[in-house]
Specification:
The complex is a heterodimer of chains A (285) and B (262). The termini of chain A are far apart. Chain A folds into two domains: 141 residues, Heat Shock Protein 90, CATH 3.30.565.10; 125 residues, Heat Shock Protein 90. With 285 residues, chain A is an alpha+beta fold. A ten-stranded antiparallel sheet of chain A has the order 5-6-4-3-2-8-9-10-12-11, covered by helices on one side. Chain B folds into three domains: 92 residues, Rna Polymerase Sigma Factor, Chain: A, CATH 1.10.1740; 55 residues, Winged helix-like DNA-binding domain superfamily/Winged helix DNA-binding domain (Arc Repressor Mutant, subunit A, Orthogonal Bundle); 79 residues, Arc Repressor Mutant, subunit A (Orthogonal Bundle), CATH 1.10.10.10. In chain B, a hairpin with a 5-residue loop joins strand 2 and strand 3. The longest helix of chain B has 22 residues. The chains are: A alpha+beta (285), B mainly alpha (262). At the A-B interface, helix 1, helix 2, helix 3, helix 4 and strand 5 of A face strand 1, helix 2, helix 4, helix 6 and helix 7 of B.
Amino acid sequence: MAEIPNLRLRLPNRPENVLVVRQALSGVAECLALDAIETNDVNTAVTEACNNVVAHAYEGGEGLLEVDVYAQADGLAVIVRDHGIGMPAADEREREREEQSLGGLGLVVIDSLSRAVEFTEPAAGGTEVRMQFGAPGKAASLALEADEQELALASERALGSNVELQVAPSAMARAVLPRVLSALAARAYFSTDRISDVQLVADVLAAKAGDSISGSYLDVGVNVAPRNLELRIGPLQTGQGESLVAAAADGLAPVIERLTDERHRVARADGSAEMLELHLVDRQR
Amino acid sequence: MPSLATRPQSTLRTAPAAPNHVREMFVRWQRDRDPAAREALVRQFMPLARGLARRYGRSSEPFEDLLQVASLGLLKALDRYDTDRGPFPSFAVPTILGEMRRYFRDSGWAVHVPRGAQERALKVRDAQERLANEHGRAPSVNQLAEYLEFDIEDVIDALQAVQAYDTLSLDAPRPRADGEVVAYGDTLGQDDERYELVELDATVSAVLGHIPARERAILRMRFVEDLTQTEIAERVGISQMQVSRLLRRSLEQLRTLTQDAG
């Protein structure tokens, strides 16, 4: 058994996606009952690590920014990963720290605000920054373990979406998913009306995740276009796609059906699990 | 560039304590109160304070003010630093950021500083209403951010934070577009059945009774009549933010209740 992340975000390393990461972390912080200062420290340190991936990891080109969040017995760990050019050699880093140059200041900030930080270069290339934060109490109850096998599955399945979020169905999903989708809806120029509708849809998906997914993560891929969010949700147990759409509010009025575009679709990935495709559109001019 | 295989994992925590000449300077300041030593330390570490002020400042604040606040944090750090506890910057950064946080607490720099956030939520609520009245539709986050001169992130936070403000008077009577002050109760019809949701199964009928009439009415307007949240806000006489909060809360209640009933 190995420790597995509660949350994984995979996004293109664009500046605007750092805001998405920060929203997700605010959700994590809320779920772990961190206070304002702790939340701010986590957000600031992780933002620095993400900004570094945005600015330097791919030498100005585009690549993947990955963020893993672990709730642990003694706190919170966040890994920020890229698959870029790797990090400056240790002596160069030390020099940057001494000079407090831009990159160096980021490192000093991360170092100061986290309990421990570790920089590694995985065999596959790129850089990993692992930051530990103290978060007494609540984090322990959310810690996850699983077979390595299962984790590998979760990271390999590519959704081909702009932004991908994998979250273990739990209180964390309920805190994180609405925030992440709100941030993306805002980017898609949704009105506040429709952003609130997006939150209602996210609430349903997160609340129902435990009963509807097949596997250990709810996987949400999002394509963002002006006034249009395309969501791909999976992997779902057979029949759960339609039942999420139709019966989402327990027979009240079907929340997802009412709030999303009618052209939803249930697709089958690799013959077993279902994927639900939803379109959220803001039709107001 | 060496690969991982050729060099051990590095950990910044193992970074050496202050170099000797810096240690000496700290001793001369902290023990002997030698002002020249303090001046030398300030000169050496001012780039750190300046860097933080520039990095975390907001364009709305004059840079000189920020620099002053950051410098104050630096002076405090010079007094309190223990030379045996790792490099000075690791100690100074939280101190300087703490000083900047205090300074910005009311102008909304820090994420999730409750008082600032609550005030921002109210401003977002009011701007939402004003812009909706002007344009006949709910504004986007970008429009709100531009109108209020807030960061996009502040507005998104406000839209989320509103869910937590149970005690906040989002509900208070407010002037309508025509200037009439209307409390929400006045605009709700008294006949309950008008607001009943259609096609209820037995389970839902049983639990819906636990949802207050106003929330049932709002659920119906959104999910049966397909009114937008702004239209509902206008009809009921509350803010769209409050409509959003009530919808989220009553759907959550319904989920919990049906789970219990099932």
